[in-house]
Amino acid sequence: MSTTIGRVNANINIVTGGSLECAHCSSALDGDAQTVLDLLPRREGPASAAGPHICADPSAYIDAEVVFRQYYCPSCWTAFHSEVVLR
Amino acid sequence: MVYPVPGSEAFASRGLTPRDTIVQSLPAGLRLHETASSTADLDALSYEVIRHRLWATTERMGQALSRMSGSLVVTDCNDIGVAITDEVGDIVQIGPYALSLATSVDLAIKWILQNRKQIADGDMFLCNDPWVGGATHQNDVAIIAPIFHEGELFAWTGVMAHQIDLGGAAPGSWTPRAQDVFMESLPTPPVRLVRDFEIQDDVADVYLRRSRMPQVVALDMRAKIGANKVGRERIEELLTKYGADAVKATMRRQMDDAETQLRAKLDKIPDGTWRAESHQEQSHTGDRGVHTIKCAVTKVGSDLHVDFTGTSPQAGMINCPYPGLHGGLIAGVIMSLCADIPWATGGLWRCIRVTSEPGTLNNAEFPSAVGKASVGSGMCTINAVEECLAKMTDASEELQDHTFAKGCGTWDLCVLAGLDQYGMPFATMLTDAMGAGCGATNDQDGVDSGGILSIPMGRMPDVEMIEFSAPLLYLWRREEIDTGGPGQFRGGVTASLAIVPHDTDIPMAQVISGSGKAVSQNTGIGGGYPGNSQLDIAVRGSDVRALLASGSIPAAVGEMGGTEEILGCEEEPVLGPLDVHVMVWQGGGGYGDPLLRDPRSVAHDVAERLVSESSARDIYGVVLRGLDIDEESTAARRDAIRAGRRDVAMSGSGA
């Protein structure tokens, strides 16, 4: 049984030995505080996939592609990070 | 392409000059007040009374400015800044107004001490040079006053306000066409506007002659002089009642306490590095690029290193010189960490080290265009710093309650100018965006239309006052559904407006300047979504006049007739007599996964028209029957959304 000794953020705990766990379902997560996000499963879609509040077509303003990206716990599929950013 | 101007480096402030260096460079005959007593000699009661009097003095100075001004930006919006510093310009107390207007006045005062001779009682200096400090862009004009006591320089007061027009190529002094600062309002390094308590008419004329609205700007100039006078009187009262040594010891201790208390907080947070980026689309008219401020905050022990390495090169007119970085960074620190710490940046800066590359967006070199510095790269500096600090506090069990998502990340600027119904020239800046949505915290929704966090006393002006001061008619100003970033705690919703020209058939010149339209600036945190996209629309050749004549008020773009035109981030269009301008500014980002939000809160939001039923179902996974929660369907819906996430991520359409 691992013991929580700290946190990376509200979604990710640091447990005995320095490994990481989901704060919601206690599943083990890969990586460390700096790399954990990049190692999570994610989905990427058009900016409009974030919801009706992301209302404009990015191509009306800029040449770069803009995406809605979301990172999840690989076990309980809680969203750890959501962003509308450049691809 | 911006070419270097030889000699311009003499006006470039880049960081706080140490006290010893200032003292060594003082003009002959200028004596500083040095307290004989240490802060330890100050009893606790006197300290609390004097420091609260200093705090109240900044508020009183702001009120004095606001009540004397004739500009809506000041009287109804509080786009002003106020500060009190010690004798060498280290800030003892910031007033609760636009923080970044006040937080670089320290650089300007240190510049004055090193570059202006014969500083004397009764002087006041005017400055709107964004490279010197005390101003983020040229529209923010500072008037700075030394306070002497028994022949010694004791302290300074600074009063800043956004001026509605100071010349340049476009009304409002803010042109997206600017290639360099010579196409903008003239930056003026500190000049002695007041000598021996008398306004110097020649200096005032040089200043006011540049404006399209000289009477309004002249009134603001006098209002700032008056506000400095209020500050001087209040501080003199303190000196009379408590003595100079006690007041100076309070100033020292206020800064020491700010440092000590910030260090105590930082000590509670695990060491680490946190990163963020803040983007601006389009740097000038015709640009289709994205320009990024990169920030990495590293905390070791009780020290912060804020590193902007990798920030995009200066571009167009969205840049800010170093004082904009300086003021924006410390404003972010104040908002994120100092709710219960004195706003004495002279002490806070002792905990912070900065790395930045000259020639970049928030360390722009002369003569780059900087007309949008305040809400361009200045505000994006705040965005990036606040996001880093939010991630930092979210890593701390003890300080997690300091964590908040970003609110509005810029300003949706709309300047209008032309001739009013009397044939007289007018220029106005819509300041409704002061009512932007706030970001959510780790245990609360963001405040709906709560304002811009770094302008604590900012106010949304009264529509009637705007209509009174300019030939405009509001079709609506209202909160907009779904504009708050979804989250376990929802970002505050924001608002929109629609205006038409009124009582005049003369086309109006406009400046439209605002980012966050394609890439979010109002970021969420912890799985929370960003807030809404900013949006400006022109409806050309509308039927609004006919509709109004028939007794009908259109309540949506689709009800106006005419042709819809999406406006870019940086444009100077014309608003015709039958055109409508619609703008939606930014709401706040959310905190946490929206699937974790209490369904009762979602139902409440739907009932209040803050969240649509479709967003409740598709984003929050809450199924409603009327306004009642269908708990079984909600559980199934949330399971289905999680399964959908898994399927999409595992199918390879993810990373």
Please describe the structure with a list of short key phrases separated by commas or semicolons:
heterodimer, A: 87 residues, mainly beta, four-stranded antiparallel β-sheet, three-stranded antiparallel β-sheet, 7 strands, 0% helix, 40% strand, B: 655 residues, alpha+beta, five-stranded antiparallel β-sheet, 23 strands, globular
What's the short version?
Chain A is mostly beta strands. Chain A has strands at 4-9, 12-15, 20-22, 28-29, 42-46, 66-72, 79-86.
Description:
The complex is a heterodimer of chains A (87) and B (655). Chain A is mainly beta. Chain A has one domain (4-86). Chain A is 0% helix and 40% strand. Chain A contains no helices and seven strands. Chain A is elongated. The termini of chain A are far apart. In chain A, 44% of the residues are buried. With 655 residues, chain B is α+β, with helices and mostly antiparallel strands. Chain B folds into three domains: 8-258, no CATH class; 404-591, no CATH class; 598-650, no CATH class. Helices cover 30% and strands 20% of the residues of chain B. Chain B has 16 helices and 23 strands. Chain B has helices at 19-24, 44-68, 72-75, 99-102, 105-115, 201-208, 214-242, 244-267, 322-337, 345-348, 377-394, 463-469, 544-549, 599-607, 613-618, 631-650; strands at residues 80-85, 91-94, 124-127, 140-149, 152-162, 191-195, 198-199, 272-281, 290-300, 303-307, 352-355, 413-419, 425-429, 472-479, 495-501, 508-513, 535-540, 563-566, 570-571, 574-575, 580-584, 624-625, 628-629. In chain B, the strands form five sheets. A seven-stranded antiparallel β-sheet of chain B has the order 2-1-5-4-3-6-7, with helices on both faces. In chain B, strands 12, 13, 16, 19 and 20 form a five-stranded antiparallel β-sheet that branches. The two termini of chain B are 38 Å apart. The model of chain B has no long low-confidence stretch (mean pLDDT 96). Chains A and B meet through strand 1, strand 5, strand 6 and strand 7 of A and strand 8, helix 15 and helix 16 of B.
